[in-house]
Amino acid sequence: MKGSLKACIGLFSTMTLLAGCVDMPHPFGDPGPEGRRLALTTPPPRLAVPTPPDSLLDNTASALWAREVATQLVDQSLPAVAQPAKPGDWWLKLSATLQGSDVTPHYVVMMPNGEARGHWDAAPVPASVWAQGEKPVLSSLAAASAPQISSVLTGIQAAMMQADPHSLKRRPAKVYFKGVKGAPGDGNVSLARAFTASFPDRHDQLQSTPKDADYSVEAIVTVSDGPAGTTGHPSQHIEISWRTVAADGKEAGAATQLHDIDAHSLDGPWGDVAMAAASEAAGGVHQIITNYSGRDHKPLPPETPATKK
Questions:
Q1: Which superkingdom heads the taxonomic lineage of this protein's source (predicted)?
Q2: CA angle at residue 135 from 133 to 138, to 5 degrees?
Q3: CATH number of the domain at 47-163, please?
Q4: 2-25+172-293: which CATH number, 3.30.160, 3.40.1260, 1.10.3210, 3.30.70?
Q5: Is-above-0.70 flag for pTM?
Q6: CA–CA dist 193, 272 (Å, integer)
């Protein structure tokens, strides 16, 4: 058994980070009651994109531009809606100006208090082309502009987090570890002990109860029979999924470890395998929390006269 365990220490060298942990901005995600308490300035869960009155387009083309922008923002995982802005809404102000023989589209994010943030211009379009208001042109413009809009919204969220002493930019995340289930041998206990030892750092701290936790983590181990292998020895497929859930109950992500092992080689003590797996998983969970919370995003600088056009 000892030899088998040593051979397995490297089996967790590949880890997959599943949905929710990608580096995706969440400037308009509703964090639930606990999340709202921890980030008091969280924006509402929608960005309005009204039809622009100053677009140098007719009404039909202006409405089409707003719809195309909203569609592209949804593709960026931002819940934008092409509709008039209501009191208390965040909204995107679109406009365009004629400069010589070209038209320059403008974008501004408007906050609920009326403050304008993130002024920027798209690439100029020939005025003769712009005036036609054709869908391919407006769709291409929206697709090119959506990443910049997303970046500005992420920067605004980061600036708000920076100003909030309760946000995860200003304090460590509180994490409740629910333990390990389904492991053969002593894996449930060994993995839990190893994760508890490996996980805490200056960014994330473990706590013994779920009360007021920002995130909870639970590991689920699944073992299934695998192919006989090239040497005819039976094998098993092992999967360890470290599921990370935010305070509002939404899954922030899952770090999943996969490997084929000699059959029943982990039916006894896990030994160093537990420490190797848990140490790698701890890094994956740190990344999930960082990406989901947005705590590493760079704050958008304050507006200056030079950026206001």
A1: Bacteria
A2: 75
A3: 3.40.50.10070
A4: 3.30.160
A5: no
A6: 12
